[in-house]
């Protein structure tokens, strides 16, 4: 259902007001009546309470006139549209409304359903035009303010369509399948309908980051306010999942009572959102999810030290266990972003140092991916990226092999997920199949197919132990076309079935301490 335009009727004559209220089927034509008022003062109070889109008002009323009320409303920066109810003898008053940018007049004793609908549709069209232009301008200004901190020329008081308490949240999307721009357009077209009961403003900061400001009714208690916000977030995540088919992480920041606190609130929400690195899938985070301290920081630093030593010694089997214990156990347990950053940079420095000391091909791209993942991914993905970087480094650290064999081993590590065979390699390297087969067996100590199987199974074990993938997904990821053949080779190579492997988080603490 589309958003209904809220209409407020302000008229001191009860009969005329009730006649107008019953003149048309408001909902059928896309409108919603809010509680009416008998004078300008009441009308102003109802306006602040309901924030209507269109106000139908008499001019001459007791306590406060319609023109005085319009003047007060205009001073709030509202873009509401007005329809004046006039009598013949009041037409001179109506001319004064031109100074208040009001151009719609209806003679109250001649108004009928056709005249009323005609004026309402004019105001609706004016609202849509002004909102579209205003939203574009406000969105651009708000985006500039959030990204640069500049106070834009229009000022920050006009960013929202409402006054009072708001809450800021930052939303980060997962990878958007297909055309991200097309998906975003679909999202904009349908989200407002799915969340029509809420008042909010959203700004896209990047391809996958959105900042949302939600109006929270000040009449709600703290507990009910929290429920209100969580209900909005849940519906929003459902919308993202339905429209874009992606997971979302949401960082809920503080309440904002004054617009000059927008930037501070955004920064707090961003800090909260960084905690998403310790979660998989959808997550909703608030200030309570930031730990008070580093917990047992020394325990983490001891494991970092041990992991660095094994990187230098290139003990890959132990390294994989240490990475799982470090990222998916200890860091998930303590949820300290500061410790995570320390860990990421310490291990990156060690990898780069080993790489440079041996004069190997640069790991620059892979290390950049790790840093990026620590900001926008999660610890489970970080383990995979470290394993890939270590695998590439390990493949390069083979001085005992001839250059031809190093090239073959490097090719296997980079293409194990594809169909790899000696015939293709012989053509690429311009060497006979028989010569490659004999040379490989002599230098490596096993035949080509056995080595390829070992690489695939080592990778399969790494993937299965992260807990991120199902067996059939791992089968495809390591180059097997059927899960049956994959399971057969896996059992032959490891002595276990793929389903026997679970995440290291379920292992006992004593076993995890043994990796030190």
From TrEMBL:
Sequence ranges assigned to domain HTH araC/xylS-type in this UniProt record: 406-504
Subcellular location: Cytoplasm
Record domain Response regulatory: where: 6-123
GO biological process entries: phosphorelay signal transduction system
GO cellular component annotations of the record: cytoplasm
Protein name: Stage 0 sporulation protein A homolog
A molecular function GO annotation: sequence-specific DNA binding
Phosphoprotein as UniProt keyword: yes
Principal place of residence: cytoplasm
């Amino acid at each position: 259902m589309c958003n209904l335009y809220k209409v407020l009727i302000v008229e001191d004559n009860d009969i005329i007001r009730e006649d107008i209220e019953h003149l048309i089927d408001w909902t059928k034509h896309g409108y919603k009546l809010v509680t009416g008022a008998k004078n300008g003062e009441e009308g102003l109070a109802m306006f602040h309470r309901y924030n209507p889109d269109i106000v139908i008002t008499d001019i001459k009323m007791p306590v406060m006139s319609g023109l005085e009320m319009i003047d007060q409303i205009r001073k709030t920066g509202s873009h509401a549209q007005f329809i004046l109810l006039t009598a013949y003898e009041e037409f001179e008053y109506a001319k004064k409304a031109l100074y208040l940018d009001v151009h719609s007049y209806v003679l109250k004793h001649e108004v009928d359903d056709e005249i009323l609908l005609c004026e309402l549709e004019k105001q609706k069209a004016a609202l849509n035009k002004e909102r579209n232009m205003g939203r574009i301008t406000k969105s651009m200004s708000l985006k500039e303010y959030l990204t640069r901190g500049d106070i834009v020329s229009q000022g920050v008081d006009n960013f929202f369509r409402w006054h009072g308490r708001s809450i800021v949240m930052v939303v980060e999307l997962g990878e958007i399948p297909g055309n991200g721009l097309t998906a975003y357009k679909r999202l904009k077209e349908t989200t407002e309908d799915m969340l029509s009961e809420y008042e909010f403003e959203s700004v896209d900061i990047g391809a996958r980051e959105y900042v949302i400001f939600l109006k929270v009714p000040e009449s709600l208690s703290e507990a009910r306010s929290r429920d209100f916000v969580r209900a909005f977030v849940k519906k929003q995540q459902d919308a993202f999942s339905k429209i874009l088919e992606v997971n979302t992480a949401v960082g809920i920041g503080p309440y904002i009572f004054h617009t000059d606190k927008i930037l501070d609130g955004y920064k707090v929400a961003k800090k909260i959102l960084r905690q998403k690195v310790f979660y998989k899938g959808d997550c909703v985070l608030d200030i309570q999810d930031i730990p008070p301290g580093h917990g047992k920081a020394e325990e983490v630093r001891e494991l970092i030290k041990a992991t660095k030593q094994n990187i230098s010694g290139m003990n890959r089997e132990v390294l994989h266990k240490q990475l799982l214990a470090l990222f998916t156990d200890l860091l998930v347990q303590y949820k300290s972003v500061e410790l995570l950053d320390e860990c990421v940079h310490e291990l990156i420095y060690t990898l780069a140092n080993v790489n440079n000391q041996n004069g190997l091909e640069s790991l620059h791209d892979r290390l950049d991916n790790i840093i990026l993942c620590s900001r926008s991914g999660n610890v489970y993905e970080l383990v995979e990226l470290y394993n890939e970087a270590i695998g590439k480094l390990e493949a390069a650290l083979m001085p005992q092999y001839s250059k031809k064999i190093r090239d073959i081993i490097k090719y296997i590590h980079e293409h194990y997920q594809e169909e790899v065979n000696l015939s293709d390699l012989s053509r690429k390297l311009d060497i006979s199949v028989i010569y490659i087969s004999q040379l490989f067996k002599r230098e490596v100590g096993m035949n080509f197919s056995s080595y390829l199987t070992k690489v695939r199974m080592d990778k399969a074990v790494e993937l299965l132990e992260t807990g991120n993938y199902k067996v059939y997904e791992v089968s495809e990821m390591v180059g097997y076309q059927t899960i049956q053949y994959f399971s057969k080779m896996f059992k032959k190579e490891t002595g276990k079935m793929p389903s026997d492997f679970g995440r290291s988080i379920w292992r006992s603490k004593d076993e995890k301490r043994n990796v030190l």
